[in-house]
């Protein structure tokens, strides 16, 4: 289907673009398979605009200091300087050796020519040339081998250093900053790993490659001059060869290939449904409900119906994209070959006109042409690589910028507490007229919240789903800062306290707690990194949280990984495939030999997982007698626990009363609320009622209503 322009689409935007000196744009729409394809077309695009070239140069210049810094950093990585010197030396060797090879080839041709003409051979020279040629071949072989040998450990060392840099760049970011889409993009960019090669290695390789090819160009030019010396009509042949190669290559040079900006949108509902069903049967996360819902037959029939309606158009976008990126060759490509043979034609014609003026032998003719072609090719490689260098260097710049991203939550300066004894028996918490909207939203999640909890007191927040209970806990931990009002801990505005100290004084269990893809031991230990080697403490935390009985039943106990990040790798041969000897491939013996269970991950129930999460919280706050924690925050800590486990948990926590300040968000009444010093009932972003259990029952408001509702269920 021929593209047709969408009249009036975004015309306002186009006007404003023109006003700022940008080329005028038109958007063309076409249908490719089941996709609507939109592409920007620069209407008045100059064939070769200088401005983008200058812009590119400017960007490259901006990146150069980062490149210098990268070289300095890489050289300071232990063991890299020596390897890098060897690597550079081999690159230079690879640049020069081909020129020598061409020179020896020329010498060989001239000695052959002399032998034919004079019937004598200068044996010494012939031996010298043969040795030289052999030496070149051997040198090329060894240079390539050495380069390969050196590049593996060099890349490895750089990659390790680089991985640490990236790890630090990721680890230092706070929650709102990490969630920003442009930061995510930037982090993704620096994490790019091209088949095990980091951005740094690719950049180094590109820079060295450029230097090497430039040297090759110079060496080839010198050889060409040497070969041409004394050859009449040689320069004419060189010019003709370079011109014909130049014309053919020029069309492929990046200046003449416009940057294509496009998007494609699927417009077929059946295709979307087909893909949806395919995901349902493919991914782990859907399997439980898929099986429980008895969906196999339904899924197959729905998929079949959708596939039938889609018919032959079911190509994936990347199949279709190939045709866009690599369109059919143009008619001009037919003329490439004759164009490349132009020099020979010219020579034949010249030979026909005046045979005596042709001094070059056929051998020299071919040598000169080969050298000129190599020269043209090297030139093209240089242009292409230089064209890409800007994007490579920009990656280097970004990788250094990423560690300078300013966190959204600024650090405070005041150490907290001044003395550990100040918070040993809990710490006071106060919200003063706090209002808060989540970044990117217009609605207040909390509006004008004020309350205060004394040291060692127990406070429970209850209320409807989405009323803002968890958000209060997030603000105390400074995952976010309020838009208005102040939060005080021990009388200090928490924004003034050092973030590390603040978080050290808190212990928090979120509702959507995470079990990290680490061993159970590590998962519990990270509750208190300072005693992560203390197995006794880990065991005690697990026991107090009721997690010990769960862990003891696992074959690998505390070393169990619930969701390992590294999965087992299998050969590409399919289970059940028949081998040459007629054997059916079966992985079972291999699995048994390797001690692999049928399922690679270990599943725990929701309540068992919650016990692990509670154990992590206890690691720092409950187990440790000399705990530096003054405030415990729990968001629905018992949501998944059975009644006995919940009772035990609350019993333990109640024993801490007077020793720690505790703030709970909960939907459960009774166990906790009866003992609370303060209950806050939240609704619609604000605190509607507050007081003790008895006070709120007397008030007979919403809390009393909910309490009676829950109590009635047990009558
Ligand atoms: N990261 C976020 N970005 C935007 N809005 C959010 C975010 N997290 C929560 N919200 C919104 O803020 C409101 C309060 O959420 P919050 O989790 O504090 O409620 P909650 O009282 O703890 O609810 P529940 O009882 O269901 O746990 C909800 O409307 C929720 O949709």
UniProtKB/TrEMBL annotation:
Keywords: ATP-binding, Hydrolase, Nucleotide-binding. It comes from the Eukaryota. GO terms for molecular function: ABC-type oligopeptide transporter activity; ATP binding; ATP hydrolysis activity. Residues 429-709 form the ABC transporter domain. Transmembrane segments: none annotated. InterPro entries: AAA+_ATPase, ABC_transporter-like_ATP-bd, ABC_transporter-like_CS, P-loop_NTPase, Type_1_exporter. This is P-loop containing nucleoside triphosphate hydrolase protein. The lineage of its organism: Eukaryota, Fungi, Dikarya, Basidiomycota, Agaricomycotina.
């Amino acid at each position: 289907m021929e593209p047709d322009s969408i009249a009036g689409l975004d015309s306002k935007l186009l006007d404003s673009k023109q006003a700022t000196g940008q080329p005028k744009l038109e958007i063309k729409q076409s249908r490719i398979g089941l996709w609507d394809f939109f592409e920007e077309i620069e209407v008045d695009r100059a064939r070769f605009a200088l401005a983008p070239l200058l812009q590119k140069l400017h960007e490259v210049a901006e990146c150069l200091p980062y490149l210098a810094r990268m070289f300095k950093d890489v050289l300071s990585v232990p063991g890299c300087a020596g390897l890098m010197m060897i690597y550079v030396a081999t690159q230079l060797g690879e640049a020069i050796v081909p020129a020598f090879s061409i020179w020896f080839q020329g010498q060989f041709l001239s000695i052959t020519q002399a032998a034919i003409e004079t019937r004598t051979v200068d044996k010494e020279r012939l031996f010298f040339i043969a040795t030289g040629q052999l030496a070149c071949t051997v040198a090329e072989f060894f240079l390539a081998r050495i380069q390969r040998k050196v590049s593996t450990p060099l890349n490895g060392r750089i990659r390790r250093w680089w991985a640490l840099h990236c790890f630090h760049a990721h680890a230092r970011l706070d929650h709102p900053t990490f969630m920003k889409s442009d930061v995510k993009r930037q982090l993704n960019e620096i994490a790019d790993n091209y088949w095990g090669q980091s951005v740094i290695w690719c950049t180094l390789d590109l820079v060295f490659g450029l230097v090497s090819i430039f040297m090759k160009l110079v060496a080839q030019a010198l050889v060409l001059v040497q070969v041409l010396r004394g050859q009449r009509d040689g320069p004419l042949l060189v010019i003709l060869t370079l011109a014909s190669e130049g014309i053919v290559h020029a069309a492929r040079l990046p200046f003449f290939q416009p940057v294509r900006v496009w998007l494609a949108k699927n417009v077929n509902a059946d295709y979307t449904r087909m893909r949806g069903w395919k995901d349902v049967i493919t991914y782990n996360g859907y399997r439980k409900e898929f099986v429980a819902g008895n969906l196999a037959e339904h899924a197959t029939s729905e998929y079949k119906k959708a596939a039938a309606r889609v018919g032959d158009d079911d190509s994936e976008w990347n199949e279709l994209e190939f045709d866009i990126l690599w369109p059919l060759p143009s008619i001009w490509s037919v003329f490439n070959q004759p164009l490349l043979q132009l020099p020979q034609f010219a020579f034949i014609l010249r030979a026909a006109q005046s045979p005596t003026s042709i001094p070059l032998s056929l051998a020299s003719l071919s040598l000169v042409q080969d050298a000129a072609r190599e020269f043209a090719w090297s030139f093209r490689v240089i242009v292409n690589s230089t064209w890409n260098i800007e994007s490579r260097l920009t990656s280097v710049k970004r990788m250094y910028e990423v560690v300078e991203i300013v966190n959204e939550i600024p650090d405070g300066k005041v150490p907290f507490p001044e003395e550990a004894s100040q918070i040993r028996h809990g710490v006071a918490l106060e919200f003063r007229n706090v209002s808060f909207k989540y970044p990117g939203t217009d609605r207040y999640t909390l509006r004008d919240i004020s309350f205060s909890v004394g040291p060692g007191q127990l406070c429970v927040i209850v209320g409807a789903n989405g009323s803002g209970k968890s958000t209060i806990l997030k603000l105390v931990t400074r995952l976010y800062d309020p838009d208005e009002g102040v939060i005080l801990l021990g009388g200090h505005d928490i924004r003034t306290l050092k973030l590390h100290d603040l978080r050290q004084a808190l212990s928090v269990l979120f509702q959507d707690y995470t079990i990290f893809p680490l061993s159970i031991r590590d998962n519990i230990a990270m509750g208190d990194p300072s005693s992560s080697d203390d197995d006794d403490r880990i065991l005690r935390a697990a026991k107090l949280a009721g997690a010990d009985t769960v862990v003891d039943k696992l074959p690998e106990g505390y070393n169990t990984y619930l969701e390992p990040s590294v999965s087992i790798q299998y050969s590409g041969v399919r289970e059940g495939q028949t081998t040459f000897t007629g054997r059916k491939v079966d992985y079972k013996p291999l699995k048994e030999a390797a001690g692999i269970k049928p399922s690679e991950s270990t599943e725990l129930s929701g309540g068992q997982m919650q016990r692990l999460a509670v154990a992590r919280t206890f690691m720092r706050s409950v187990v440790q007698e000399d705990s530096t924690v003054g405030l415990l925050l729990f968001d629905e800590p018992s949501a998944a626990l059975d009644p006995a486990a919940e009772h035990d948990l609350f019993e333990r926590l109640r024993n801490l009363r007077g020793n720690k300040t505790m703030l709970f968000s909960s939907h459960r009444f009774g166990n906790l609320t009866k003992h609370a010093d303060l209950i806050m009932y939240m609704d619609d972003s604000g605190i509607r009622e507050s007081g003790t259990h008895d006070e709120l029952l007397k008030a007979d408001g919403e809390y009393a209503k909910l309490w009676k509702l829950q109590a009635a269920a047990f009558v």
